[in-house]
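Dear support,

We are seeing what looks like truncated structure output for some complexes. This example has two components. We would appreciate it if you could run it in full and send us the complete token output so we can diff it against ours.
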Amino acid sequence: MEELMQTLKGQIVEQLNLQHIKPEDIGDDQPLFIEGLGLDSIDALELIVLLQQKYGIKLANPSEGPTVFKTVRSIAEYITAHKAA
Amino acid sequence: MKPLFINGASCISPQPTFGTEFPFEAKEYTGSRLSCIEPDYAPYIDPKLSRRMGRLLKYGTTAGLQALRDAGIQVPDAISTGTGFGLLDDSGKFLKNVIEAGEGVVSPTAFIQSTHNTVSSNIALAIGCHAHNNTFAHKGFSFESALVDAQMLATEDDKMANILVGAYDEVTDYSYQIMQRLGLIRSGGESNTELLKTTGRGTIAGEGAAFFVLSTQKAENTYATYRGCKLIYKPSSAQTLSEAIEAFLAGHGLDRSEASVLSGVCGDDRRDTILRAINEGLFKGNTVLAYKHLCGEYMTSSAFGMWAAVNILRTRGVPEYMLLSGTPSCPQHILICNSYKNDYSLILLSVA
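Here is the complete output from our reference environment:
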């Protein structure tokens, strides 16, 4: 899980072109949207693309988005659960 | 039409035209591709937003916002822009992503930015402008169409006081390669300052963004008066174009001897035939200036020409590096005679 979260942080910085943020600046449980990193709806689309392209996971139910993309840890947990499935 | 006053102007180009005094110190390039000198965007665009923006979106938006600041206008009554290819780099990225993803799910950002009207929309979003917002993509008539749009808006609507008009284009690795393959680019490694002094096939590729605030009222910092614009598609000969120019000037109460000319010659013998004949015939003895050796050739390069012209009219000085023939005397009127392939245009400007 720890390794996956570190990889995810690097992928998020690259995919979203977060120019002034280093992967290590992102906390495991830091909110990604609004008050946290300040990501927005277009970033949510980018994260959906990231899940599909890098991990082959398609977010089947869009209403799951806010829960899945809440933090780096929640994304990692979702990937772990769905890769195992 | 009623005259419009150019109360704000801004330009980002391969020359030091942004944040400098006119006349700028001309930058010399070797090779056939000129790229914009990009400024610090932070004073104009929130870094959180700029991370998603391509190069053209950033320099186009910045030029537009600076023109408004220059005129002291927060929100204009309309925005009208022109672009030949729009955000070409993002269009290319999006199409490449589609191919690489096997037409599967692709990143939305490049797609969102790939439309031609992204710059004018982005300016409107930045300043909260909900007014008329048009982008014209009409090849070599794109910028001129935006000017005509502004002219008609100001004529038809008395409440229209300030209109932001501009144009922008970019050259990308891919578009440059295509232009090279088509034989549109000079193959030698000569300096851009030599482009119009030598004869040959091909020109130099360029890019840039220039914006203007056209107002119905004169202000303290007015650059020049915009008198009118005419579009002429595929004139059959230099004689046909000469007649059209004389009629256009006469329509504004001017004789051909009264105007200095800013010529859109691009250095390609095949494309300059008519404009060179005009410069050496109709305007023989007049001051003839040129600008495409400074910014390169692109579909909306006449916007760079207009930016240079309004600065000449305001500062009352002609930079030596723009002089093609005649003497560098202070002009009262400048007629921009531009061409991009078959699209010929005339833009008339006068001292305010």
